[in-house]
What we know:
single chain, extended
Amino acid sequence: MELAKTRFSDTNRDDIVRYLEAGGNNNTEGLILSDKQMELYHRWQFAAEKIREQKYKREQISQFIIGAYGVSRDTAYRDIVNAEYVFAASYPLNKQFLIQNRIEFLQKKINDAFIDKDYASAAKLEKELREYIDMYPESKPIRAPKTINFIIQNNLIVTQLTADQAFAEAEVVIKELEGKDEF
C-alpha cells in the first residue's frame, strides 16, 4: 500500500469563510453553521482579536486560547493559523491587515487629539489617514434589494378602531415616513 501526501483541506474553514462572505448572522443565502463550526468560529475570532492587539507572541496567544477554551497546544496553534486565514489577520504578511490596523490606530489618535484640543496634530493625522484610506482596496458590497420594515405601534391598551380606521391611520403614517429623507 502506497501512502500519498495530500494537501491540507478543512471543509469547516471553507464553510466558515463562505458563511462570513455571505454576511454572517445576517446572510441572505440562509447559511448556518453547525455547533462545531460555531465553536471553531468563536475560537478563531478570539485568536484574531489577540493577533490584532499586537501585544502578544504566538506562544502567548496559544496559551490564551488553551486557557479560554481548554484545547491542546497543537489545536491552539491551528486556531491561530485559521484565524489568520479567515480574518486576514497575519501580522507579517498581510498588507491589507496592516493598512486596516493603521487606519484604526489613526482614528483613535485623531479622536484623542480632538479631546486634547490639539487641532494641528489632528489635521496632520487626518491627512495621513486619507492616504491610508486611498491605499486600502475597495470592496464592492453584495447587491441586495433594500428592505424597509415598518413597525407601527399604537400604545393603546384596548383599541377601539375598526380595521378600516387602522388601515387609514397606517396610510397616513406611511405617507409621512415616505416624505422624510432616509438620512
